[in-house]
Amino acid sequence: MKNTTLLFFIACTLGSSLAQDPAPPKYTRERNSQGYVIHITKSELLRAGKLSVIYFPSYDLTKHVIASYSMSVFQKGKDPILDIPSNGDDFTPTMISVLNTVRWGDKIYFERIIEKMDSSGTLRSLPPLGISLDQE
Predict the structure, then answer these.
(1) Cα(22)–Cα(88) distance, rounded to whole angstroms?
(2) I need a labelling partner for 96 at 20 to 30 A (CA). Which of 1, 73, 74, 127 fits?
(3) Are strands 107-117 and 28-32 parallel, antiparallel or unpaired?
(4) SS3 (DSSP) at 110
């Protein structure tokens, strides 16, 4: 009886920790002369919630820490929204608000991306990342 209780406890613990670690977002990634282009849906981009999840395809976020970056959005038929800053990896509330308004075909650019190296704390600049929104 004690072994069954212990196994149930372990299963519940593992289940809850797995539920807190979502699967990586689905997207395709291309390299061009200016950096990278990601083809992703708006819902997957918002679900990612942070730049490192889509920038680093290995999804090993313990090795990559984004220290800062800026986001610009170019929407069809609207004035561009330029240089929304983030002093960390997570999308800011302003970024999320803007991302909620984008539509299929709009372009999003992450620029001035600074990575903090895990072991030394050294900062390095990364190539820009372009986002092309796919249809849901």
Answers:
(1) 20
(2) 127
(3) unpaired
(4) strand
Cα separation, 115 vs 32, in Å, equals 20
Nearest by Cα to 64 from 134, 133, 130, 129: 129
Residues 6+ apart with CB under 8 A from 128: 34, 35, 36, 109, 110, 111, 112, 113
Measured between alpha carbons, how far is 36 from 134 in angstroms, rounded to an integer? 16
Residues, the chain: 136
pLDDT in tens, 10-53: 333 333 333 344 565 666 666 766 667 878 889 888 988 888 87
For 24-80, the three-class secondary structure string (H helix, E strand, C coil) is CCCCEEEEECCEEEEEEEHHHHHHHCEHHHHHCCCCCCCCEEEEEEEEEEECCCCCC
* Ramachandran category for residue 35: left, alpha or beta (phi over 0 → left; psi -120 to 50 → alpha): left
For residue 55, is pLDDT > 50?
yes
pTM of the model: 0.73
